[in-house]
Write a structure and sequence with these properties.
Blueprint (H helix, E strand, L loop, with lengths): L32 E4 L5 H7 L4 E4 L7 E4 L8 E2 L5 H12 L20 E6 L5 H8 L21 H7 L8 H6 L1 H6 L13 E6 L9 H4 L12 H15 L2 H10 L1 E8 L4 E2 L2 E2 L1 E11 L5 E9 L2 H6 L9 H18 L1
Parallel strand pairs: 1-4
Antiparallel strand pairs: 1-5, 2-3, 2-10, 5-11, 6-7, 7-10, 8-9, 10-11
Length: about 325
């Protein structure tokens, strides 16, 4: 920092043309860090779980796909994570032996596969902690010059959809207390982070059900449904049953439970801005870390199939170039 000006960490002091005798102030800030049992880069983690991606206009408006994560960033081994968080993560992993091959999120178009994760240096704003730890890009090029980034927010629509017309659904308001507290902060305004959502829950109240029930992802009343819908819901209930053991670990060992997710965003050429995105079911350890289950959800049935295919996705060179441009946009914001 020079005076009241914050310097970007992507530029050198020479870039700022500092003269001899200039006074700099340095503040050390701990950023949220993601730990995995099998460490990899942010890009590799995305590919493992279905390739988190965005719709873009592409070159000449021909349509394209961009990565959601910063490919230059690496995640860490949870052998280096805080000891208490690592112990709880191991217990959660033992409770989910088939996690990598089954469906976890039972909201529409949840993909099969998941991983137990640890996030250290988490803040009170769990949504920001998840975004930073996952290395989600804040800006993306080719989203269309005719679409203002500030108009991409669909959080408010998500909020309206979850309420009665008179806004009297008190339980839903309690579930969104943390999200509402932070939703208008500058870090979420006019960028892709603003499309993320967060819902609070107390898993202790669902210890004999599952976190899917806590976040209202399943319908217990299948009796009045037509046979084909009944079969789908019965399959979801069976999948939810497999999450009960994990829910019990999270309920007993964690607090401030939450679900981190993404909305669809504005449509680009008939497709949602967000194609496939990460979902985290988690909570806080006594030492202030986050432990949870990371998985993926597509935004419609077509994207559900497309998420497992990398066709049309930008190359790593293109993504690296775009990431540099994204950093430039962030520097301009500063």
């Amino acid at each position: 920092m020079i005076g009241e000006r914050i310097l970007s960490n992507s530029k050198t002091l020479r870039d700022y043309a500092l003269v001899s005798g200039s006074t700099l102030q340095v503040t050390l800030v701990s950023m949220p860090v993601l730990f995995l049992a099998s460490p990899c880069s942010a890009h590799q983690l995305s590919k493992r779980l279905g390739s988190w991606r965005l719709t873009t206009w592409g070159e000449c408006g021909g349509g394209g796909v961009a990565k959601m994560v910063k490919i230059k960033k690496d995640h860490h081994s949870w052998e280096d994570a805080p000891a208490e968080a690592r112990e709880i993560a191991n217990a959660l992993r033992e409770a989910t032996p088939d996690l990598e091959s089954r469906r976890v999120c039972l909201t529409e178009h949840g993909l099969a596969g998941g991983a137990v994760v640890i996030i250290s240096n988490a803040t009170e704003d769990r949504r920001m902690s998840c975004l930073q730890a996952l290395q989600i890009r804040k800006n993306a090029r080719d989203c269309g010059s005719d679409i203002e980034m500030s108009d991409l927010h669909d959080e408010d629509q998500c909020w309206r959809d979850l309420h009665d017309e008179d806004g009297s659904d008190i339980e839903d308001q309690k579930a969104y207390v943390t999200w509402l507290k932070h939703k208008d902060e500058p870090g979420y305004c006019g960028n892709l982070w603003g499309l993320s959502t967060l819902r609070d829950a107390d898993l202790k109240q669902h210890i004999h059900q599952s976190f899917n029930a806590a976040f209202e992802e399943i319908n217990d009343d299948v009796g009045q449904l037509p046979p084909w819908q009944r079969k789908v819901l019965e399959e979801a209930q069976n999948a939810s049953t497999k999450n009960i053991a994990a829910t019990q670990v999270m309920a007993m060992r964690l607090d401030r439970h939450f679900k981190f997710d993404f909305g669809c965003g504005r449509s680009i050429d008939g497709e949602p801005l967000v194609h496939c995105a990460p979902v985290i079911y988690g909570g806080y350890t006594p030492d202030g870390s986050i432990v949870g289950i990371l998985t993926t959800r597509a935004k419609n049935a077509d994207n559900h199939n497309y998420c497992s295919d990398s066709e049309g996705e930008e190359s790593e060179d293109e993504a690296s170039e775009a990431e540099s441009e994204d950093q430039g946009l962030e520097d301009e914001e500063e």
